[in-house]
Amino acid sequence: MPGYGRADNEWDMLVEAGRGFLVERAKLGKLTSYTELSVTLARRTGCRAFDFERADERAAMGHLLGRIVGQDREIAPSDPPVMLSALVNYLGANDAGPGFYQLAKDLQLLPMSASSDEKFEFWIKQVKRLYERHGASPAVA
Q1: What span, in angstroms and rounded, lies between the C-alpha atoms of 74 and 58?
Q2: Residue 137: what pLDDT?
């Protein structure tokens, strides 16, 4: 089912390219920003970039990251589970956005009542596990 003004095949391309890019970042031991992810996906897929000035486009990026996490959990399950979207943060921010934490709660990886400190610790563990899983020497975290 198409959503956010994009066709199913476009979402499929974005999920595949997005997962590939985030795995590359994990192997390098590096984080990325929403902006860098959007620009990279547009370049690699030919799809239009996300316009973060628009609320629906920000929601669409959240939808994409949720799908990337889902695909990664199917392709490369891990115990404890990891979320590739942990590698994406706001420019100038020190952790992931609120959508990351909500997805973690939805997946029952983070308690619904998690404090700010618990969220931050969860994010740090996710990033470290992703770096370890992909053999990186962490530059951050």
Answers
A1: 25
A2: 67
Check residue 50 and report its DSSP letter: P
Structure token pair of residue 96: 């992931």
Q: Domains in the chain: how many in total?
A: 1
* Residue 138 forms part of a structural domain: no
Tokens found for residue 115: 């404090």
Question: Two tokens at 54?
Answer: 């628009």
Exposure letters 63-79 (e unless 16+ CB within 10 A, then b): bbbbbbbbbbeeeeeee
Please indicate, yes or no, if residue 38 is contained in any of the structural domains: yes
Rounded CA separation 35/84 (Å): 16
Q: Is residue 61 part of a domain?
A: yes
Question: What is the residue range of 41's domain?
Answer: 8-133
Query: Quick one: which H or E segment has residue 129?
Result: helix 116-133
3: in domain: no
- What is the tens place of the pLDDT at every residue in 18-77? 999 999 999 999 999 999 999 999 999 999 999 999 999 999 999 999 999 999 999 999
CA distance 1 to 66: 15
